[in-house]
Amino acid sequence: xxxxxxxxxxxxxxxxxxxxxxxxxxxxxxxxxxxxxxxxxxxxxxxxxxxxxxxxxxxxxxxxxxxxxxxxxxxxxxxxxxxxxxxxxxxxxxxxxxxxxxxxxxxxxxxxxxxxxxxxxxxxxxxxxxxxxxxxxxxxxxxxxxxxxxxxxxxxxxxxxxxxxxxxxxxxxxxxxxxxxxxxxxxxxxxxxxxxxxxxxxxxxxxxxxxxxxxxxxxxxxxxxxxxxxxxxxxxxxxxxxxxxxxxxxxxxxxxxxxxxxxxxxxxxxxxxxxxxxxxxxxxxxxxxxxxxxxxxxxxxxxxxxxxxxxxxxxxxxxxxxxxxxxxxxxxxxxxxxxxxxxxxx
Length: 346
Description:
Layout: H1 5-38, H2 42-54, H3 56-67, H4 71-95, H5 102-105, H6 110-128, E1 136-137, E2 140-141, H7 142-161, H8 185-224, H9 228-233, H10 235-240, H11 242-253, H12 257-272, H13 275-282, H14 291-314, H15 325-345
Antiparallel strand pairs: 1-2
Helix pairs in contact: 1-2, 1-8, 1-11, 2-12, 3-4, 3-8, 3-13, 4-11, 4-12, 4-14, 4-15, 6-7, 6-12, 6-14, 11-12, 14-15
């Protein structure tokens, strides 16, 4: 792909970005249908279906980077994606203007628990970067194993509490959409089958686009002399966050606020489990290549998540210039975090 030149690489990168955007919108709509059909609930549906499908670009990039020996890009893409995808909630909040802030519109405390899972998993990730490569079981680092165990336990606990009435909050700013009344069982079945097919096709398109994003983006970074960590944590993370951006905006427009949080928090927690695949492909633990830069942006993402968790609990009622107060704090923190990333990387 390096033979294409910068103009050709930009064209491939842009085309792949468009594909991921369209696929993200399609995935959100298909997930909405499957949530209703199989009674998954917005939170769990977002965490399982949307988060896994939305993480396919990260999967493609991580495996490709680990196989080619670009372990810094593999780590930077996964860790840097946490802050970027958390910032997507700010974008989603802006598209919900005219209604209460996004954290107030969510009619459940389950997203706060999802955010807590992200904080735990990111904490394991940052600690894992401080361990030597020898702290491993075979090619897999012990911190990577801890991340996977924490995610499995967290998902089990979330599945147990998703229907608890004491975690429900009074809906503010309108109700979520529901399935049309009077729809027959056969009609619902046909609609669900069609949604499954569309979901699978959109997931495949997302995966292929992720491969193109990694290959064209990595070639551009090399040609332009961009630092691998900075590129992975910023430009590449932005490109791979396009499915979450499009699905988040679509979810807000459908008033599926809890699903939006499940998508973002679920994707952040799940994508860090991909370190286990990176370790296996690279034949060694990848987390020790995290470095100060990735640890910094990971910590920024952790604090951003904690702020939104606080917003879900405190439920601010007012917007200020189209954003909730928690979104403004997160935006400021993200900008300062990127400036700090440049300083740390130097």
